[in-house]
Design a protein that fits this description.
Elements: E1 17-20, E2 23-30, E3 33-40, E4 54-61, E5 63-68, E6 71-76, E7 80-83, E8 89-93, E9 99-106, H1 110-123
Antiparallel strand pairs: 1-2, 2-3, 3-9, 4-7, 4-9, 5-6, 5-8
């Protein structure tokens, strides 16, 4: 199979990458974009950061605040946040449950892909 053939992934079968004390991630690299399934625990905000990628965050479960350029917006399951490149942002869980967020980045986030590949290599997993 080549790079342009379809691939099927099952999130529940993929190993988690520990991002920090309250966050885990699973990453899939695609042509032109990167998908990251994030698990963010209550009480552990993500660190404010920016990057040269467009980011689309879809909240699957949980509730919180999307903080972009210092502006707080409440989000919950079903919310979609579009973050332009180079805009400082972070996420804070406000509910009692872990938030499940699917992030889509364009173009690819090679540092996410490389970090997740290391996890796969350590576990001897080939996707």
């Amino acid at each position: 199979m080549g790079k342009y053939d379809p691939t099927v992934y099952t999130w529940s079968e993929m190993p988690e990458q520990i991002v920090n004390a309250g966050a885990k991630r699973k990453t899939v690299d695609c042509i032109g974009c990167t998908l990251a399934m994030n698990y963010q625990d209550p009480g552990e905000p993500s660190k404010e950061h920016d990057h040269p990628h467009t980011q689309i965050s879809y909240v699957i479960e949980g509730e919180g605040e999307s903080i972009c350029n210092g502006v707080r917006r409440k989000v919950n399951a079903g919310s979609l946040v579009v973050i332009p490149p180079n805009l400082p942002h972070c996420f804070q869980v406000t509910g009692e449950k872990t938030a499940l967020i699917l992030d889509i980045f364009a173009p690819e986030r090679q540092e996410h892909v490389a970090a997740y590949q290391k996890v796969l290599d350590e576990k001897g997993i080939k996707l």
